[in-house]
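Section 5: illustrative case.
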């Protein structure tokens, strides 16, 4: 028995199936769209009649906000269900999510994974350590890291 005045531990329910969450979300989106149309029509009718009932508008807006809150809850549940099935999404050092197949972070521009070059023949992406292009088969020259800088000779003055 918990001591008097103590809050009981919240009951942890299993996550509903993603299909059920998506169906509810689609239905709520349709309902939200309909209510936004109705609110616009109501506002137009009030304007035509020059009779505004602010309490009615506030009630309809509050209903819309409640629908949007539930939609946000469903989006959070769906993203949780997705991350449970697919593991955590890849993130850059800056914290931005990395899209699959991207070579650079869209937020900060840092390179993602291994370096990638372009094939000089067909411009296909080629890993930096590859010797041949997988698209056209041409040999890819490796960039030299220790290339000496060429300094221009000083001009001889008259």
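Designed sequence:
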């Amino acid at each position: 028995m918990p001591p008097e005045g103590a809050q009981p531990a919240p009951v942890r329910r299993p996550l509903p199936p993603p299909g059920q969450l998506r169906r509810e979300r689609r239905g709520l989106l349709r309902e939200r769209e309909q209510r936004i149309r109705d609110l616009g029509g109501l506002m137009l009718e009030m304007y035509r009649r020059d009779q505004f009932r602010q309490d009615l508008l506030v009630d309809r807006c509050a209903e819309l906000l409640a629908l949007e809150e539930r939609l946000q809850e469903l989006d959070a549940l769906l993203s949780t269900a997705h991350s449970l099935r697919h593991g955590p999404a890849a993130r850059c050092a800056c914290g931005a999510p990395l899209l699959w197949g991207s070579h650079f972070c869209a937020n900060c521009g840092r390179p993602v994974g291994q370096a990638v070059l372009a094939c000089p023949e067909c411009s296909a992406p080629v890993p930096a350590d590859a010797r041949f292009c997988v698209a056209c088969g041409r040999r890819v020259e490796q960039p030299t890291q220790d290339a000496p800088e060429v300094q221009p000779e000083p001009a001889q003055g008259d």
